[in-house]
Design goal:
- The protein is mainly alpha-helical.
- The protein has one domain: Orthogonal Bundle (ABC transporter involved in vitamin B12 uptake, BtuC), CATH 1.10.3470.10.
- Helices cover 78% and strands 0% of the residues.
- The chain contains 13 helices and no strands.
- It is globular and about 65 Å long.
- The model has no long low-confidence stretch (mean pLDDT 83).
Length: 340
């Protein structure tokens, strides 16, 4: 009777351990790679100087800049991937992603309005966060009755999704209006923010705290999400407080999306393809899927950002363009496999 438990524990340990090594490797590659590469022989010395707070060499200075950007990319990718897992569980739709309910569009309205008014960087971040929170609260007020219903009610999920799509369309209309009247000198920065850009993004402790708290919540709810996925019609009779689970998944995924968008702009496909890839590779058990998606999403965005920095160095590309170029064919391949 205990053998499946041991097998599950061993599988989870193996998967999480391997993904942690991949995450560490992606951070090392990001630190060494750029328009000026850091040789492997100088990496340890540069790391030692960086840990001491000294910048005595060019390698140490470059490593400090790159590691900060890589950590921001990792926490952003992990947040988007975890939000994707939770959004797919909330809507019972494997095609759902963190941006489907319009939270990202609301953040775009707030950030682009601040950029249009030539506000300071901190005001842009606060405006993006305010826009995301405003759309989340409006969506909650409009769909609170559906969120209280059971996950087995397909109409509730459909109404929630439809409400989010309508709010997203309204926000994108405002974004289009602002882009059409923006002066040329501000247009490039606004477009880069919309596509998703990590250049100049600071390392924020708040983003790590949000991701850590959301990860703990998702792991605590992993068993409930498994039961709902397998026995949606009878989840309530099995002891699952379905309405409470729905509201929790909605609020936490919205906070994760707002945190990621505030840090790096609208980066697509991470919250869509990473949960799919992890589900194909490691199975649908959320006890393994949740931490695997966080580690894989963070590593994926770190590598994409490294590619964005180096593909036509010294010029940098928006990382959102790289994730879209990689994500579109990967998602089509996943759909093909799912159909087969």
């Amino acid at each position: 009777m205990r053998h499946p438990v041991r097998s599950l524990s061993q599988q989870a340990t193996l998967v999480i351990g391997a993904l942690m090594l991949c995450a560490l490797a992606s951070l090392v590659v990001s630190g060494m790679t750029g328009s000026v590469a850091i040789p492997p022989a100088e990496l340890l010395d540069a790391l030692r100087l960086m840990m001491r707070g000294e910048a005595g060499t060019l390698a140490a200075s470059l490593l400090e800049l790159r590691v900060g950007r890589a950590l921001t990319a990792f926490v952003t990718g992990g947040a988007l991937a975890l939000a994707g897992v939770m959004m797919q569980a909330l809507l019972r739709n494997p095609l759902a992603d963190p941006y489907v309910l319009g939270v990202s569009a609301g953040a775009s309205v707030g950030a682009l309005l601040a950029l249009l008014l030539m506000a300071a960087a901190v005001v842009v971040d606060l405006s993006a966060l305010g826009g995301a929170v405003a759309v989340s609260m409006l969506l909650y007020l409009l769909a609170r009755r559906d969120l209280r219903s059971g996950l087995a009610a397909e109409g509730g999920s459909s109404m929630l999704l439809l409400t989010g799509v309508i709010l997203s369309s309204a926000c994108m209309a405002l974004v289009t209006l602002m882009l059409s009247i923006a002066p040329e000198g501000r247009l490039r920065g606004m477009v880069f923010w919309m596509i998703g850009d990590l250049s100049g993004a600071p390392v924020r402790l708040a983003s790590w705290l949000v991701l850590g708290a959301a990860l703990l919540y998702a792991l605590r709810c992993a068993r409930a999400m498994n039961i709902v996925a397998l026995h949606a019609e009878s989840a309530a009779t099995l002891g699952i407080r379905v309405g409470r689970l729905r509201k929790g998944l909605f609020l936490v995924s919205g906070v994760l999306t707002a945190s990621a968008v505030t840090s790096a702009g609208s980066i697509g496909f991470v919250g869509l393809i990473v949960p799919h890839a992890c589900r194909f590779a490691f199975g649908p058990d959320h006890r393994v899927l949740v931490p695997a998606a966080v580690l894989a999403g963070g590593s994926f965005l770190v590598l994409c950002d490294t590619l964005a920095r180096t593909v036509i160095a010294p010029q940098q590309l928006p990382v959102g363009a790289i994730t879209a170029i990689i994500g579109a064919p990967v998602f089509l391949y996943q759909l093909h496999r799912l159909r087969r």
